[in-house]
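Re: Re: token formats

Sure, here are both.
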Amino acid sequence: MDRFQEMQVFVRIAERGSFTQAAEDLQIPRATVTNLLKRMEARIGTRLLERTTRTVTLTDDGKRFYRNCVRLLADMEEAENQFRNTVPKGLLRVNMQGTLAKNFVVPALGDFMARYPDIRLQISEDDRFVDLVREGIHCVLRAGNLQDSSMVGRRVTQLEQITVASPGYLEKYGVPESLEELAGHYAVNYISSATGRAMPLEFVVGDEVKIVQLPELVAVNGADLYTAASLAGMGIVQIPRYRVLQELEEKKLAIVLPELLPPPIPVSVLYPQNRHLSQRVRVFVDWISEIFQYVR
């Protein structure tokens, strides 16, 4: 066991807030994790972590040491990879917005696994804000504008959006022919997990984006619920066209204000800005960019 592994263990404990989860991530016994951390603290002569029965937090010295360890580990990995043609390997945890995963990523996974058979991929599904470092997730795939300044990423496409409502809703409230005629209408308001507020409707008018905040009959915080509520006649929604192609064909939904489209919605792979991008994350981001290259 060397100092390099001690730093890896310390960083993993600090990020996961748990000795047990750090041991699982690194695939070593929990007792080994505990002993390595104790040995490191004894050698450098300071306490790095405060432990209780429920929590593990960094001390002030631990916070300073953590930043240095992250930098040193990143430099070490980069230096080693410069001089050898390494094969990406290891566990890659990815969190994705469910409909993007189902429609575009999962159907193409066979290609990724064939290219990188030594990567073990774990995919979780969420629309919520994810604390990547705390939850041990390497990157996320999201639709929408970047809200968290602690993350950076690569935009992989922009999805065309449309405004739709059910025929039953339009029969009851009328078909609006202009933005002004939206008065008296309702939206299915989508509650942002980042802000906790309802997201307004947006329309591109010339070079401007007009914001319209309609009252709601119902508000939701999930993509599938958003579509389902509109199909049930609960209001107007704005949604990527690919998600409702079948419903449009079957006339379960109708396009509203077709001449005034919403702005396209960006799709991005995001990861922490203060972390070195590992080789397995880098090849995954490149692959995601490939599969979304022609998606609109």
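Second one below.
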Amino acid sequence: MITDHNPEQPVVKAQNVTKQLQGPGGTLTILETASLQLAEGEVTAILGASGSGKSTLLGLLAGLDEVTSGTIELFGQSLSGLTEDQRAALRAGKVGFVFQSFQLLPGMTALENVMLPLELAGIRKPAADAAHALKQVGLSERLHHYPGQLSGGEQQRVAIARAFASQPKVLFADEPTGSLDQATGSRIIDLLFEMREQTGAALLLVTHDERLAARCDHRLLIEKGRLEPLS
């Protein structure tokens, strides 16, 4: 059973999360007893070397993958025991995603890409809300352009519009500036924080970008599967 969110509860809470995979050489531990909390409106950066488990942790916290042991709560609801469909229902309209590779559907226009999750969440006026979100990220003139007709920075702005269009409570971003040059990346960072100010969403960011990490409320480092706070 999925319960309503209590605003006094953390948006995301992980306790002693371990993720292991079985490989040819035996058991591989990707994460070991990782714990964190993210309150409403907070911004936390997760840093670490490639292959350290950052993206794996993000996927676990968002309910896209299942833990080996430990517990994760999203909006006060334990993810343990929920089916994939139940986890998707819990996320619908309340969780946004931004990825390094944009993850836009090439056969859909910018407007249609932003509309899609709104339609899936049952939003009544998806086209109007999508157009408003694209206007907020400065793409009013690009509504009917396809991803292949947009620059990398414009594609990431579409992805940000899509992530924030439903007014989510939390946004998960996996290397949101990783595919962009420094100047474009700086504009995307500014945009992420502007949209966060407007919506009040909590942000959990996986990044190599020190400029982005420096603007966050909290910074965590993953090393050898261990999650530790950075001073």
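The two ends are 39 Å apart (CA to CA). The chain has a mean pLDDT of 91.
- S.
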